[in-house]
Amino acid sequence: MFYKNLNKLSYGVRQLHLSKRFKHALPDLPYDYNALEPVISAEIMKIHHQKHHATYVNNLNMTEEKIQEALAKGDIRSVIQLQSALKFNGGGHINHSIFWTNLCKDGGEPSGKLLQAINRDFGSLQVLQARLNAIAIAVQGSGWGWLGYNKIDKRLEVACCPNQDPLEPTTGLVPLFGIDVWEHAYYLQYKNVR
């Protein structure tokens, strides 16, 4: 279900680049809310997208406006105080925009260069899945488990980030696949079983 759309990551990234010139916008999902059932319920998808992600987008836009106002006034204290809101809401928007492109109805196994890289860096898809699951389950509180690409070492790596911290600014890894381990992503359907 998840690996098939790794090459569609550019969809979410394009949405983010387009939003630089304008206000940030909630990206449309490339599938219907019920497309991932029974793995992820339509109710979770709708709430996750329309409520949680939309809130990150709205708060990001408000935070950027406040930063611009503070900059215009030369109020560096306010600019500094707003950085945590910028990181949290900007990260929430970035992370979710990537996350939606990782999901698809029929899924499938990775193939081609991605599978070759997985086998080279982890030994097998099963080892990658086990490591990614372990790192996501181990997140204390809320956060994200990621498969990322290390541009320096030219290798795939797994990593986790707390809260809505975005992967690339936090670790330098290019995000390829994310697992949202905030309760809003699973709790209605899976309760406390991450």
From TrEMBL:
<dbReference type="InterPro" id="IPR036314">
    <property type="entry name" value="SOD_C_sf"/>
</dbReference>
<feature type="domain" description="Manganese/iron superoxide dismutase C-terminal">
    <location>
        <begin position="110"/>
        <end position="194"/>
    </location>
</feature>
<feature type="binding site">
    <location>
        <position position="180"/>
    </location>
    <ligand>
        <name>Mn(2+)</name>
    </ligand>
</feature>
<keyword id="KW-0479">Metal-binding</keyword>
<feature type="binding site">
    <location>
        <position position="96"/>
    </location>
    <ligand>
        <name>Mn(2+)</name>
    </ligand>
</feature>
<dbReference type="GO" id="GO:0005739">
    <property type="term" value="C:mitochondrion"/>
</dbReference>
<keyword id="KW-0560">Oxidoreductase</keyword>
<comment type="similarity">
    <text>Belongs to the iron/manganese superoxide dismutase family.</text>
</comment>
<comment type="function">
    <text>Destroys superoxide anion radicals which are normally produced within the cells and which are toxic to biological systems.</text>
</comment>
<dbReference type="GO" id="GO:0030145">
    <property type="term" value="F:manganese ion binding"/>
</dbReference>
<protein>
    <recommendedName>
        <fullName>Superoxide dismutase</fullName>
        <ecNumber>1.15.1.1</ecNumber>
    </recommendedName>
</protein>
<dbReference type="Pfam" id="PF02777">
    <property type="entry name" value="Sod_Fe_C"/>
</dbReference>
<dbReference type="InterPro" id="IPR050265">
    <property type="entry name" value="Fe/Mn_Superoxide_Dismutase"/>
</dbReference>
<feature type="binding site">
    <location>
        <position position="48"/>
    </location>
    <ligand>
        <name>Mn(2+)</name>
    </ligand>
</feature>
<keyword id="KW-0464">Manganese</keyword>
<dbReference type="InterPro" id="IPR019831">
    <property type="entry name" value="Mn/Fe_SOD_N"/>
</dbReference>
<comment type="function">
    <text>Destroys radicals which are normally produced within the cells and which are toxic to biological systems.</text>
</comment>
<dbReference type="InterPro" id="IPR036324">
    <property type="entry name" value="Mn/Fe_SOD_N_sf"/>
</dbReference>
<dbReference type="InterPro" id="IPR001189">
    <property type="entry name" value="Mn/Fe_SOD"/>
</dbReference>
<dbReference type="InterPro" id="IPR019832">
    <property type="entry name" value="Mn/Fe_SOD_C"/>
</dbReference>
<dbReference type="GO" id="GO:0004784">
    <property type="term" value="F:superoxide dismutase activity"/>
</dbReference>
<feature type="binding site">
    <location>
        <position position="184"/>
    </location>
    <ligand>
        <name>Mn(2+)</name>
    </ligand>
</feature>
<dbReference type="InterPro" id="IPR019833">
    <property type="entry name" value="Mn/Fe_SOD_BS"/>
</dbReference>
<dbReference type="Pfam" id="PF00081">
    <property type="entry name" value="Sod_Fe_N"/>
</dbReference>
<feature type="domain" description="Manganese/iron superoxide dismutase N-terminal">
    <location>
        <begin position="23"/>
        <end position="103"/>
    </location>
</feature>
